[in-house]
Amino acid sequence: MSSDKVLLDYGSGGRASQRLISELFVKYFANPELERLNDAAALKLNGTISMSTDSFTVDPIFFPGGDIGSLAVHGTVNDVAMLGAIPRYLTCAYIIEEGLPMDDLERIVKSMGEACKEAGVNIVTGDTKVVPKGMVDKIFINTTGVGEIIADPAPSGDRAAVGDAVLVSGTIGDHGLTILGTREGLSLESNVQSDSAALNHLLVKLVQEIPDVHVLRDPTRGGLATTLNEITVSSNVCCELEESNIPIKAEVAGGCSFLGLDPLYLANEGKFLCILPQEYAEQALEIMRADELGRDACQVGTITDANPGKVILVTPLGGRRLLNMLEGEQLPRIC
Fold this sequence. Notes:
Blueprint: H1 15-29, H2 32-35, E1 49-56, E2 62-63, E3 66-67, H3 68-81, E4 85-97, H4 102-119, E5 122-131, E6 139-149, E7 164-168, H5 174-184, H6 200-209, E8 215-217, H7 223-235, E9 238-242, H8 250-259, E10 273-277, H9 281-289, E11 298-304, E12 311-314, E13 320-322
Helix pairs in contact: 1-4, 3-4
């Protein structure tokens, strides 16, 4: 690009906008449908589709383990896949603050393109707006994803049943603690980093090999505890969590203890919950552990009818604690 910073002209729709699109976005997002540069995309999909949209305002925009660009792809791809679907296409809209360094924008766009290739999806249409300095914080990204549902019946938050096993694909709280530590300049352990990743390939394998997966959900904002509360309310069941089984990295537990945070409520961007009949639990864990993104998978609880709509944490000493849904945001702008 001819400028080292993003100018208002780049959001004008004129020649400057066209240069930005052709020299930056098309360069890293290249695919036949996008390269037609139409106002909409003609897509081929079969059967029932899964569709999700999300906006990303994470602060800081670069963090250990990822950035706002890769996170925008991972977040929406994962949401689409949670219905037992194969994600196919994404849309992408940028709202950029005037003066953002062009090198930062290119780094984000490049990261986003690489994340799309890893996930096997194409960005097929999008939009770019540039607003005056101070009207937005650096850059916000919106993505919408669509995919083909292959699970029958599709997993859903209202399908958890009494007797089901509750599995988690790996350690929790990594992303939330990383964002807070980076934002505040805290000296955390060097191997604390975001778990941001596209889970769709693992999820597709899971729903293809397990006859009936009742619920799939990624515990992002509000973390494990809030997500399970949403599921128990939707399904009118109770979830009993075994505290000693919940995988938490020692450095994450230590950081949370120091900061007064509960890792059960911290965001995750590369983990998922799987709720399914107990008879399929071991098979599901084998599938998950065979993948790098699920190597720490384990069963953390069971679904009961004891206290419908509630999540109960069972401590190592046999005590029982109610895990309520958070009233507000424990950590703002974590995605």
